[in-house]
Amino acid sequence: MTAIPTCPEEFHIFDTSLRDGAQQEGLRLTVADKLKIAVYLDELGVTFIEGGWPGASPSDTQFFAEAAQVLDLRTSKLVAFGATRRPGGSASTDVLTRALVDAGTDYVCIVAKSHDEHVIRALRTTLEENLEMIRDTVTFLINEGKHVFVDCEHFFDGYRANPAYALSVVRTASEAGAEVVVLCDTNGGMLPSWMGDIVSAAAQTGANLGVHCHNDTACAVANTMAAVEAGVMHVQGTFNGYGERTGNADLSALIPNLQLKFGWELLPPERLSEITRVAHAIALVAHQPLLGRQPYVGQSSFAHKAGLHASAIKVDPNLYQHIDPALVGNDLRMLISDMAGRANIQIKGEQLGIDLSDRELAARITDKVKAKEAEGYSYESSDASFEMLLRQELGILDYPIQVHSWRVLSEERDGDTITEATVKLTAKGERQMVVGEGNGPVNALDMALRKAVATAYPEVAEFELTDYRVRILDEGHGTDATVRTLIDTSWRGETWTTVGVGTNVIEASWEALLDAIVYGIFTHIASD
Amino acid sequence: MTAIPTCPEEFHIFDTSLRDGAQQEGLRLTVADKLKIAVYLDELGVTFIEGGWPGASPSDTQFFAEAAQVLDLRTSKLVAFGATRRPGGSASTDVLTRALVDAGTDYVCIVAKSHDEHVIRALRTTLEENLEMIRDTVTFLINEGKHVFVDCEHFFDGYRANPAYALSVVRTASEAGAEVVVLCDTNGGMLPSWMGDIVSAAAQTGANLGVHCHNDTACAVANTMAAVEAGVMHVQGTFNGYGERTGNADLSALIPNLQLKFGWELLPPERLSEITRVAHAIALVAHQPLLGRQPYVGQSSFAHKAGLHASAIKVDPNLYQHIDPALVGNDLRMLISDMAGRANIQIKGEQLGIDLSDRELAARITDKVKAKEAEGYSYESSDASFEMLLRQELGILDYPIQVHSWRVLSEERDGDTITEATVKLTAKGERQMVVGEGNGPVNALDMALRKAVATAYPEVAEFELTDYRVRILDEGHGTDATVRTLIDTSWRGETWTTVGVGTNVIEASWEALLDAIVYGIFTHIASD
């Protein structure tokens, strides 16, 4: 009743976050973003990373050029995406096919049409010419030394409309030398119970098969699992399910499903336990909030609201969880549980080398944290501010600077926008009054603040504000709402995060800026 | 290969958004919220609405009391949730069973344990007493005039551990008179291919079966579909997939799947086409942003970004969509981005009522869009700015206001942060010089700008800035980087989005603010 298929000898996890994932509305990845994400994927150890479509978009071309220079992948292999050559042409002279070769990857994946109606109406060519395009393009790329995968676009719809033609596309690609022929549910309309027979029919061609699913029926992961059960040896997906329309099969769920439900060791267990971290890191770079209830990796995925479940969990957590969350690097979380709260604080204190084993002290700090979080502060992503709060409560926070006042002015003068900040403070007994310019009020304040502090603490001039995030907390109120700002500051390879909250975004930013400088001084610069 | 099961004569859509949905972390529903959501669900026409657990939480008790007074459901039936009586007691004297009766609904749904280990370790009673608790509670409730459903908690895990006992629970509930016995995947660890055999085994008892799935393997909808294919006549789920941990089966995907993929007419077609509106309305009440890529009902679910897709969509939209989006009340949307081709631009122009069939014109605008996107603009989520760009290129954009200068100042004075903006402009021939205060520079500029324009166009005073988003484009450069701001402006039920880009965040915000006002004037206020 719980059939477990055997893992094929060769099995590919093919990540297309950087290509199909980037098709998601609102998701824009710069070349630098893509390089960062590729490093995370390689750390996790997916088999393939599809990087983009060289030649079709200038930034994708640039990605492959930079990747060749700076990416040093240890586990994963980079893949360039492309298409079959144009009808009536030749793969050897096609501009896009050329760009694919020039991308310099060992692996390429090309999309081919496999639905007869699409060949005729969208591609406006004959069914035979489409097969010839596949043959010609695959052969050409192999002759150029590439390993070739072929994505059969609209394969499932195509098979339902004209099975013989859809299968002839698979056969043609495989016979021309494609190492994997990928069956794509491009429009995403399939259901799991419809997958098996079609995949089995395609397997009759003898091709190595892969699958590529979209989530239009909320079944992308399930459809992929069904194809795996029917014998595919290559699964395509994206992290966090990013992708065109409803997104692609979510690898952050698919990989744990295959590894923990089927017992296939696709990743070493110590890598699988990095998947929550990797999913969150990718979400951060993609600037997409990660859904709390995202399977396996979401913040709420192993969270229990107190009640019916709580007493059973005290008996044995496994009574109310389908896997041990540590396997995927996630945690069981008890919500609205005072004990869990205090335990969290104690564990964090331990990590910072501050003893909080005193129950009363830990309870007082827990209350303080809860009160601040209710105001809008968030400490789970700003350890530096949490440490400042801890030290303040323990009476061991010595402010190395005293701020008297600050102000910042932006104006348009003759078509140029100019922003200037003035900061007055005292550091090491000396009063400073400094003006800074910047590309916005926060930048100008940061410049002025660091200049003012640097007289007393010269290292502060090297501090760099590396990230600045603003979150409006009561949405629907526009600019007239409480805001939270998070600031990342880096210095000599260390990075720390501080948080500020206020109804005025400049005030919230100032708080985070000041904490960033103060934290940097007392943790990284010997005070005297 | 695409097996379509036949719809049972009686089939229930059982919504538990108000009960299990409310278990989601961060989701808090007041009694008023629940009443509003119940009205939406009734408008759509689900069979049952589970309202909460009377007696277990005071606000749930209050909900049923108020529902009895004010809710006038036309299609759906309200259900009160409860549990089997305590071990060793009697249903007739159990406080919670009593509260269930007092809730005053015709239908009740009680949870019973069906996993032997849970009976022994969590409930701390015998397997036989658990069966007796079910018999006693169901019989008592029927004698009180109720229709009774029984949720078998952990049924699938229980069946895998001890099939005979799990089936005896189903049999006991059914024989005692439960009208539906609901098989629950409480921990959410099932896969679709594991459902069929277990559901079929349960069906051997002769009970009417239902299913209740969670999304811990990203398969809640697929598991529910698999159970339906195996013969259940009752599906439980929540709107937008809200629920404990990873959430429940998402009815906003499940209902369209059953109706459009299986062809079952569960709702009249004109009601199904309300499902997108209902899903969004529920999200609004629940104060949960609706994920853009949510199947069927998400804003991105029928949105196309790739140029490859757009050219085929010009031939026939059905080539790249799995259903007609109008069936669920959603729309095809063309996204304008640097991946867009001429076809995207032409379709978008058509939607705006602007003729771009001229190839040269369309190509020129495509180039312009790509150049602006390279600078950092993003038109896929800012239709208003795209329309302004179009009108500018076509020479049909008449600026109703001329800005001379603006400036904004933030400063800390005696511990308070004050932000003031000054705007000078001419509208309808009159020069205005206005000062505004705000909770940050953008808020202050918005205030001053609208005040200055409102003398000439009084409706502008009612414009509301409802969302403001900032994205730093070259991360790793901190505040010293290009930023993009997106602003949503609302007026009398219409919302439009504008974009601004600059190295100075205030300059970028000003651009988006000004465009928002100008767009609002020329599209919504008759110009003279």
TrEMBL record, chains A, B:
Gene Ontology BP annotations: isoleucine biosynthetic process; L-leucine biosynthetic process
A single MF term (Gene Ontology): 2-isopropylmalate synthase activity
PROSITE patterns: AIPM_HOMOCIT_SYNTH_1, PYR_CT
Enzyme Commission designation: 2.3.3.21
Keyword Amino-acid biosynthesis: yes
All copies of domain Pyruvate carboxyltransferase, residue ranges: 11-273
Entry annotated with the keyword Amino-acid biosynthesis: yes
Gene3D superfamilies: 1.10.238.260, 3.30.160.270, Aldolase class I
SMART domains given in the database record: LeuA_dimer
Pathway: Amino-acid biosynthesis; L-isoleucine biosynthesis; 2-oxobutanoate from pyruvate: step 1/3
UniProt keyword terms in alphabetical order: Amino-acid biosynthesis, Branched-chain amino acid biosynthesis, Isoleucine biosynthesis, Transferase
Record's catalysed reaction(s): pyruvate + acetyl-CoA + H2O = (3R)-citramalate + CoA + H(+)
Source domain of life: Bacteria
Alphabetical list of Pfam families matching this protein: HCS_D2, HMGL-like, LeuA_dimer
InterPro entries registered for this protein in UniProt: 2-isopropylmalate_synth_dimer, AIPM/Hcit_synth_CS, Aldolase_TIM, Citramal_synthase, LeuA/HCS_post-cat, LeuA_allosteric_dom_sf, PYR_CT
Family statement: Belongs to the alpha-IPM synthase/homocitrate synthase family.
Name of the protein: Citramalate synthase
Native source organism of the sequence: Tessaracoccus antarcticus
